Amino acid sequence: MAGLVVFVLALAMIATHSEHPPVAAIAFAFVLFKVGILGILVIALGVLVILAVRFALERIVFRFEKTLREEIKSI
Q1: Calpha distance 14→7 (Å, rounded)
Q2: Closest C-alpha to 12, from 26, 2, 1, 23
Q3: Residue 44: its pLDDT value, please?
Q4: What's the CA gap between 30 and 36, in Å, rounded?
Q5: What are the sequence ranges of the domains in the chain?
Q6: By CB atoms within 10 Å of each CB, which of 14, 37, 44, 54 scores lowest?
């Protein structure tokens, strides 16, 4: 069962161009140690936090670049 989970996950990562070896290890550990729904929720929450931080940082960088371009044009 664990091998099948890792195989399907590897195919999904290849299909989405998001290869990340620790993800395969996490999936393997979840199957091997029979991690419940709480473990899945913790991982999902962590992914959401990372996405939120990335989104916020991108917006800050875009605003900073826009302000910098406007200041350069005014000089």
Answers
A1: 11
A2: 23
A3: 84
A4: 8
A5: 1-35, 36-75
A6: 37
Confidence (pLDDT) at 22 = 78
**In one letter, which amino acid is 46?**
G
What residue has token string 């999902």?
44
Q: What is the pLDDT of residue 45?
A: 92
At residue 53, the pLDDT reads: 93
CA atoms within 13 A on the CB side of 66: 6
Q: Which residue is it, tokens 């875009």? A: 62
